[in-house]
């Protein structure tokens, strides 16, 4: 059957919709809704919604949402997030920054290194006491600023946290850090370093820990930090924190010789033992305590300004105290008057001053040769 051209065009326009068949009146379609979609607008309308999706906008609409996905952006939508978009989330998260101070001692890992200085099995960068001196690295760092390098108090090239003698006084930090004596467990650390003389400088950094004007290096006993510091009078206090190291009743500061810890301490008798450690400063055979060293002030029999314990001739009779002392532990007292001969101007109580009887030589005169 052959269609007329007019009829053929009429059918085509009717199929398109919105067009009227030739020769017929156009129905009002302004309120028509596409089949199957309650809210959808007619296809081709700028605001139309895709059939089957209550909220989806028509394909090609700048604001359209993809069919079947209530929130998905339409293909070609100006606001859609496209694959390869610069703002798209990466497939993997960024690598976290390394922890530069894992042990929290305010010393950076590059400064501590991966070595194990004290041999305790813990690498320095994880060890809170890298040198095993009982002082925590955080204390020996110098400050809490990660941007400053660890301090080197004695300038020997080894930072304090890796230096067994931070102030170079021949006394190991482990002896100056905790309680007196080597009584701490190997892995034990102190909360605060010991500070004996109250000058604000902890002993392990103080060149004169007890403030007696005698340097700790002179009070150490020797130059070997592996040996404990000396305790001259055996009272349990090593000399570097003992204000009377030889226990003679005279403070070390009085026996120092001057007020400068950097100068060697005085050695009155020249026997190689400094006075603060010498029980007989003047080497006269009479103990300092016997010569009144513990008196306040120390005894000065002849009033010459030199106390008897430092005076080789305490009574200034021309006879050396060593000659008058006798051989026993107690100084000789010839006349039994309670005053030992070295302090008695008339030792035999004969009414003649010892100075008159002494003679002119180094040895007292013995007129009758009886010894």
SSE arrangement, N to C: HHHHHHHH
Average pLDDT score? 80
Shape verdict = rod-shaped
**Count of extended strands:** 0
Which percent range fits the helix content?
10-25%
* Largest sheet composition: none
β-strand percent reads: under 5%
Q: Could you tell me how far the N terminus lies from the C terminus, measured between alpha carbons in angstroms?
A: 175 Å
Question: Segments where pLDDT lies below 50 for 5+ residues?
Answer: 1-24, 29-85
Roughly how many Å is the radius of gyration?
A: 51 Å
- Individual helix count: 8
Structural class: little secondary structure
Topology, pairings included?
Elements: H1 5-16, H2 109-112, H3 137-140, H4 173-176, H5 216-219, H6 252-255, H7 321-324, H8 354-357
Quickly describe the structure.
With 371 residues, this protein is mostly loops. The chain has helices at 5-16, 109-112, 137-140, 173-176, 216-219, 252-255, 321-324, 354-357.
Explained architecture:
The model is unreliable at 1-24 and 29-85 (pLDDT under 50). The protein is rod-shaped and about 115 Å long. It is mostly loops. The chain has helices spanning 5-16, 109-112, 137-140, 173-176, 216-219, 252-255, 321-324, 354-357. Helices cover 11% and strands 0% of the residues.
Which features does this protein show?
rod-shaped
